[in-house]
User: Fold Probable peptidoglycan glycosyltransferase FtsW from Waltera intestinalis.
Amino acid sequence: MAEARRRRKKKQQSEYFFDYSLLFIVLFLLGFGLIMIYSASSYEAYDTYGDAAFYMKKQLVANIIGLVGMIIIANIPYHFWERFAMLGYVVSMILIFLVKTPLGISSHGATRWIGIPHTGFNLQPAEVAKLCMILFLASLVCKMGKSVRTMKGFFIMMGAPLPIAACVYLITDNLSSAIIIMGIAVLMVFVASPDYKKFVIMGLSVVAAAALLVFVVVQMGDKIGTFRLARIQAWLNPESQAQDKGFQTLQALYAIGSGGIWGKGLGQSMQKLSFLPEAQNDMIFSIICEELGLFGAVAIILMFIMLLWRMMVIANNAPDLFGAMLVVGVMGHIAIQAILNIAVVTNSIPNTGISLPFISYGGSSALFLLAEIGLVLSVARRIQLKEL
Assistant:
């Protein structure tokens, strides 16, 4: 009888556990993001819409909706979503194709959004695909079991996200999201099947292919005919295309360099005054560097490291494989996206449109990232307190 009471008490304790440290980090990043969106976009927003807080207000609405969704998802047992894994895969594919219908919305020369009638809200199918891919791959790993460690299992796991990634790239012309989807898959497969040899070979092959591509671009010189190859050339020598493909990169580097150690002060950026395109979106990290300096940039990077570390702890202590793989997928998504964004802003890799998680302006990104955090919190709630 005493043993039964002890087990019941233990179960009740684990049922009410909530990872407040993870929640605090997410809330901090969201709050900081709102401040930086207002700072980076106030000039353009007032000039275009007559309201300096236009972008910040829209992001605030998305964040509030996302936080409500996050709390709801966190209180639903995460195994509930496993039955929708295949449905999510199919729905994300359908949404991608809807971009080419009259529902598709174009902005800045790209058609990547779906307009939801009578709401004024635009949905980016690539964000849906990232979440659905995490759910689908986590479910697939559990169904395959030990066979995921075989060569056949490896190719099945790596082939599963290819149709979605290909559609994201070919239909919505969103290379960065396609890379993130494949990156999530690689990390989840690596965790499920830690065979270093296969991944070393794959990594070396990717590096060799990238080096070959850069060599070809250099040899072609002015004969480059495609937009993406021209971006590689601008990455190698942005000064040579200061008025064209290298303009945004150079302005971002000017912002980073002028910030110094401590920055010019919050709200004191010069590059946001119509010099730096997409200051509140993809390039918000450069405004952080300009206004808050190296100190602010390092602080934000440390916050992301703390967020990833907390998710790693949850993944290591997850009650089962499905929960662990969900957390690994979310961790991979946030890590890859943050690294790519900072690499683009600092010109470490060629320029490609990608937002900084929780901080850049973007309603769809905020909604689905918070949904993913909800899944992580749901897994954390099922962990025995003594295991933390």
